[in-house]
Amino acid sequence: MTIGPGTPWSxxxxxxxxxxxxxxxxxxxxxxxxxxxxxxxxxxxxxxxGGTLWTTIGGPSVPGRLRTAEARHYPVDLxxxxxxxxxxxxxxxxxxxxxxxxxxxxxxxxxxLGRFRVAPRAHPGDALLDIIEGEGLSLDDVRRxxxxxxxxxxxxxxxxxxxxxxxATWSFAQPRMLSVDGRRLxxxxxxxxxxxxxxxxxxx
Length: 204
Description:
Helices cover 14% and strands 43% of the residues. The protein is mainly β. The protein is globular and about 50 Å long.
């Protein structure tokens, strides 16, 4: 169920004995990409012990918690990105940039990009992607923005556009370097993204 004001997001529940565990966003999204066509009607259940999705949920670093009464189930949205006709999935972020961050697009399912809080309002269970776009930033702009990224205080900013959408499409005049959940995938010219709400249950 998509989270809304006053609605609970999680429920108590153990991680099944045969469920896989992941400690990075990319490891989880790669596994989901391989399995999503064979899932059928059942939601996959996975455990997480690291990554920006785990950080967003607030997963504690207690060994063995996932198979105790303290474990909780969180329904999480899955992002789908089509880059120059090739489909990938993501749980955390998609970044397409040109140059030293002067032209940057960040599509966020979680607030965090590494240690930076790029999209403070992003939530992996709200059926929306947080999209931050900066074009034509000067080096001085980048220098001023970077220190604020750690705490998410870079927004609002006159040269950064923030939107919250379930899907979006871009065409770049100059190809941009694409990263999906922290993994570089090369340069792309055409990009589209959309969400599959409540596509996976994450246990922390």
